[in-house]
Queue: 3 jobs
Job 1
Amino acid sequence: MLNEENRKIGRRNFLKAVAAVPAAGAFAWSAFKVDRPLAAGIIGTGGEGRVLIEQTNTQLMRYVAVCDIFEPNRKKGVASCQKVQPDVAPPAEYDDYRKLLERDDIEAVLIATPLWLHAPMTIDALKAGKHVLCEKTMAYSVQACDEMAAAQKASGKILQIGHQRRYNELYRNAVQMIRSGVIGDVHHIRALWHRNGDWRRAVPQSSFDPTPHGYADLEHLVNWRLYAKHSQGLMTELGSHQVDVANWISGAEPTAVMASGGIQRYKDGRELNDHVYNIFEYPNGLTVTYSSIQSNALDNYYEQVMGTRGTVVLAGEGEAFLFMEGKDAAASKATEVAVSTTAAGGPVMEASASRAADAGSGAAVGSASAGYSSLIPYRNELEGFVYSVRTGEPPLCSAAEGRRAARAVLAANQAMERHQRVAIDTPPQA
Ligand SMILES: NC(=O)c1ccc[n+]([C@@H]2O[C@H](COP(=O)([O-])OP(=O)(O)OC[C@H]3O[C@@H](n4cnc5c(N)ncnc54)[C@H](O)[C@@H]3O)[C@@H](O)[C@H]2O)c1
């Protein structure tokens, strides 16, 4: 827990250090020129689907169709499309995603449905010749990840997985800085996502029968995260993002995991653990500990990267702090770095003290200021997707990266279930 003074120091230290290493800079995809916007369909317009729609740069991508089995959510999806693209006709509506995939005019599909559907929908979409941006976690099982990767290969289309931290400029600069050695050798990353609540959504009054779609009732459709048929719980819903960060920083993936967890607070009929604790073993003497709990929200969520010379804390997807150790600590307190806001509202780094060391780069980067919105990476992710589709450049979060994160968190769930250390020794297929 950091007090305001420490946060200020930590923010300044971070900016100064980022400015002193070759800049990762900002993404430039918003300026990417396309002859016509990518024609997209979206499957699943619940909470996340609508976030994606509303963060879309419609110069680059337009929605021609939405699909959701639950009409109220589908209508909200249509409304979100109309909000961001008021100049075109409302998108066509489907309750069967296969019908959406039959449309020849749709070039790409976004998938924001519950975890158990990621693989079948992605594979069908790739087979139908569509590019796919599929939400995280990549799939319900490692085998399903492999099937998705194989379908991607066979299709020659883009498959991007929705770990949006890969598209967060703050993270991108932190990774660059950590890799350049500023905090020394990293032997421990501590990540957590702690909340105090039951993670339940209110079930709306509706006569809709979701049983033909594989949900026992409306409760299972709305609260799919709590049920084993549809989800793998906290590790796939939250943990995979943060394990992905550890994979990215280390350039590796875990080789084994020990874990413990259970339904320790909410014995309300849910099937998936409400408290999970994990120890991931990585190569090169790195250990990543991860917990997600639902009984205390202090510190909420962060990834804390601990090196022999200092610590980087990436908090809430919008803040970054650096604290040096020992003799480096005193030096790091002196800084002239300031944060200001651009006309467009995005934070810009002004590193007057360190600019000389970073002479070539005046680029705006996601700053360590509290003002960095966690929505910006979604926009970047979507723009990056269009860029990959149009240029053939592999996405920053490819099927291979998605699989690595999935494989780790699924192994953690096995370790929890078996009360055993589980080796993660399946060679990557993707
Ligand atoms: N990247 C992130 O940070 C982030 C954040 C939240 C959720 N997500 C991911 O997005 C996905 C959706 O999560 P959510 O929070 O939007 O859930 P949600 O329950 O709000 O939305 C899921 C939608 O899918 C629809 N659906 C279910 N089965 C369907 C089917 N067979 N065909 C068509 N539609 C169907 C539901 O009716 C619902 O509207 C999940 O994979 C989740 O992990 C990612």
Job 2
Amino acid sequence: MKTLLLCPKDHGNTYTVFSYIQKQMAFSNACDLKVLSPKSDYYLTKAELQNYDRIIFGSGVYGGNLHKKLKEFLFSLKREDVKCRCKLYLALTWFGRSDSNMQVFNQAAEMLDEKGLYLQNNFFSCFGAGFGLVRLGHPNAKELAASLTWFKELDS
Ligand SMILES: Cc1cc2nc3c(=O)[nH]c(=O)nc-3n(C[C@H](O)[C@H](O)[C@H](O)COP(=O)(O)O)c2cc1C
């Protein structure tokens, strides 16, 4: 079971969570971290998607939307780009504004549904810092540990 953690960019709160999971799982060699920025060493090419049995999309929440790069990626994704039994998940960082994490989950689920792909209901979210003092110090050690627990409990 090989997992891809796919992040829009190679910095920020979501990347912090994914880097943590990847480092903790490094011993198993079953978890790769890639990003959607062409300039990054970790850039994902579409062909690589076929290597994975599980893909976890990561994003912040921006005015109730997914990160622009992830949205573009999901828009261009085709059913045949991923293995037929590949399981898809979402992990988010956010401020905790209203139900904006749920809005973003629904947005991703609908985009994937249009491709005939199913986004698993079990999504992860934790706080991420931004705008000065807002959620300063997040994601914290407890949230990072929770992200790893969530990851480990996903069906294998
Ligand atoms: C322009 C902008 C809009 C945001 N909108 C929301 C929002 O609608 N709901 C929320 O809970 N957090 C919101 N946030 C907070 C981000 O989701 C949070 O800081 C997240 O951790 C950013 O992830 P990143 O560091 O990976 O980009 C917003 C942040 C920015 C910069």
Job 3
Amino acid sequence: MDTNNPFSIRTTTGRRLSRLRQAEKQALQVVLPKVELSPQNKDVLQKYRERYKKVVLEIGFGRGDFLLKKANQCQDTLFIGVEVFLAGVAKLLRRMVNYDNKSNPLPENILISTNDVRVVLSEIIPEAFIDRVYILFPDPWPKKRHHKRRLLKVEFINMLTKKLKKEGDIIVATDCESYAEEIMNNFQKAGYKCIEHDIQEVFQTKYAIKARQKGHPIYSFRFVRST
Ligand SMILES: C[S@@+](CC[C@H](N)C(=O)[O-])C[C@H]1O[C@@H](n2cnc3c(N)ncnc32)[C@H](O)[C@@H]1O
């Protein structure tokens, strides 16, 4: 599979680009190249490092509501959003350019990668580059036989650690109790401690809203390195 070609990427939910609406395909063809971060253009990050005070990475941004809101609020921060679900990426792109108001410029402080986050971490992001990581409602894989597919394993957290500044933090939320327990254990094993719970800002993503409608408790954590 050619991971550089958005038309060939399978999403984790199995949806392919051919299933997308015409307007979503158009957003991916026209807007994505203006904001895309890939292994081929990763050198642009040096320029961004000089321009912005902080760098935030959001992993699995879904339709991107949280990413867009934060980027508008924090203009001195570069936001790197990673999402393999192309329909979600397209929805964010369409709102970024605001087709109804052509004078609304594309936010300059957002870069997007449609690569798997493991590729982004291993091939694109420099070491000690990121101030904060958000991982909001990662796919829970609630069935026991699927737990091995969960993203937040110790090995993955170790990859994040290399890219995070020493004083950086990682914010995680889930509504899956067994995943919350695993997340806490794995972060501790990887040398982190949780210094904050009930982080209100993460309660507004699409999945947070769904979870609350279903009456599920939301577990949220802010981790920093313990040493
Ligand atoms: C349950 S959704 C949560 C979306 C959003 N953060 C929210 O709270 O509404 C998890 C998202 O993570 C994305 N995802 C899963 N594995 C990924 C990976 N390896 N790299 C990038 N994105 C991934 C999925 O495509 C999906 O959109």
